[in-house]
Amino acid sequence: MLPEPDTRCHGWALRRLNQRFLRAAPPTLPGGAIPGISGYSPPVSSPHLQFAGVRRRFGRLSVLKGVSGSVEPGAMLLVTGPNGSGKSTLMRCLAGLLAPDGGTIAYQENGTPLEAAERRRRVGVVAPDLAFYAELTVAENLTFFARLRRVSPERGLGVLGRLDLPLDRLAGNLSSGMRQRLRWGFALLHSPRLLLLDEPFQNFDAAGERIARELLEEHLEDGGLAVVANPSSLDFHHVAAHLDLGR
């Protein structure tokens, strides 16, 4: 979901760009956790997402045919359906990364409606195509994207500590499950109120899924909201509505 990294960028240049952020990072506990941070704790606001009649075509192929749904603070909308049913397309539309051909998408925080460009800056996204720099370490990737987000890397370091990611390992050398953990770290980096999670537990082992579920539950209990896309149903007690795109 993020722009593909520019392969012309040299790892050493990016490392130099991140050195002052790494030097300024607070002391960490074993595993990279930040003292005083027990988990994810977004700021207080009253987010709300509602979409109606969303349509999207790719040439002659109609992928979304008038899809509607809504989600309130503290709740999750579960979107299911087989491959090719439009789950990822819907998530891109909700994130403001893809314009729908028709219908409406309304997202607000603190009573203020946010247009597509602002949604892109506010939401947290986990998706299989989320890109990062393979030639940088986990910590360097985090601090680089923190700079792009104009936020402190402190929150992300706390999340990566909970996800038990090796901060000094090159991202390109991570296993598929560890890469998925890194995507979760990116999604929670800026304390979003809305999480858009496309197959969020993909490639996780039991421990990784347990931690990710804990982070998601804390997000919802703190008044955040989430839209989760998955090929099949998920056992999660915060699910307030179910949208089946396979029907």
Chart the SSEs and their pairings:
Blueprint: H1 11-24, E1 48-58, E2 61-71, E3 76-80, H2 87-95, E4 102-109, E5 112-114, H3 116-122, E6 124-126, H4 138-149, H5 154-162, H6 176-187, E7 194-198, H7 206-221, E8 225-230, E9 239-244
Content-based structural category: alpha/beta
Mean pLDDT: 83
Termini Cα gap: 26 Å
Strand order of the largest sheet: 6-7-8-3-9
CATH architecture of the largest domain: 3-Layer(aba) Sandwich
Helix content: 25-40%
CA-atom Rg in angstroms:
18 Å
- CATH homologous superfamily of the largest domain - what is it? P-loop containing nucleotide triphosphate hydrolases
CATH class of the largest domain: Alpha Beta
Describe the model.
The protein has helices at 11-24, 87-95, 116-122, 138-149, 154-162, 176-187, 206-221, and strands spanning 48-58, 61-71, 76-80, 102-109, 112-114, 124-126, 194-198, 225-230, 239-244. It has two domains: 44-123 and 193-200 and 223-247, Rossmann fold (3-Layer(aba) Sandwich), CATH 3.40.50; 125-191. It has a five-stranded parallel beta sheet with strand order 6-7-8-3-9, sandwiched between helices. A four-stranded antiparallel beta sheet has the order 2-1-4-5. With 247 residues, it is α/β, with parallel strands linked by helices.
